[in-house]
Known about the structure:
This protein is α/β, with parallel strands linked by helices and 347 residues long.
Amino acid sequence: xxxxxxxxxxxxxxxxxxxxxxxxxxxxxxxxxxxxxxxxxxxxxxxxxxxxxxxxxxxxxxxxxxxxxxxxxxxxxxxxxxxxxxxxxxxxxxxxxxxxxxxxxxxxxxxxxxxxxxxxxxxxxxxxxxxxxxxxxxxxxxxxxxxxxxxxxxxxxxxxxxxxxxxxxxxxxxxxxxxxxxxxxxxxxxxxxxxxxxxxxxxxxxxxxxxxxxxxxxxxxxxxxxxxxxxxxxxxxxxxxxxxxxxxxxxxxxxxxxxxxxxxxxxxxxxxxxxxxxxxxxxxxxxxxxxxxxxxxxxxxxxxxxxxxxxxxxxxxxxxxxxxxxxxxxxxxxxxxxxxxxxxxxx
Length: 347
Ligand code: MRU
């Protein structure tokens, strides 16, 4: 990801010997671009839980480096990191990948694998956007939450096709326009908008409740979102509010795509009812930047994710192409895909 003249990733390893995990502190964006470093497994787990890093693939990459910090007792490290957040499958994919051999080299291989997968998602998704642009003479994309480079180490998941399409623009001359949901309560839309600004891609922020209006007025040609966990049947857990967009998209005949690397797919779960949905503190809803929005005595319920049933998903933009729900399992079995990649040198 390029910001000004500098290339960034969401998270990286720094130093020899003991070393540290450095990440862009997403709690401080869009106001400041600063980093925060962790030197212990506990610090890494806290920064994941406190959302200094967000987005499933970035959470996984951060955990992979966290396992290196905890290499003296990998089982203990896995236990601590595994409690940081429950929904993003990538956290567990990374821990499982690292627990046998928590070396710096193996963590880098994991992270490079994520970057390579997201680059492919960008390429497959850009072709899709090209077809949509050719058909409609426009490429207006509605997205929810944050699924850009900061959420996926680099490139992004849902934003990767938009970046790749925008880079290759000219063939059909269509400039993409991104409708960015603000994404209450943590306003991940601000990070999406920040990334799109840095890339010079046209975008407009809308309040979460504007989706029905946009979709019913034909203002979006496609919806693309990321995922935190995808069950074997294609049900998708993603940021709360995604389900509503999917139902509205179907009602209004707008294609709804989920962009995710295979590290987010959990073939051990038959369907989305088995996905644990994180419930976060009520202060995220009741307060804004430390200021109370509601009177004393009011409580809030704050599920961080929801599950969109596979029947609402037009397709899954993965590193292996744009797939249908029934293709996920045959494409990404055997379970040990990462092991296969390693032996075939694919990561
Ligand atoms: O709670 P967050 O900010 O970690 O949630 C992030 C999302 O829900 C993203 O949409 C998802 O991880 C897909 S991103 C690459």
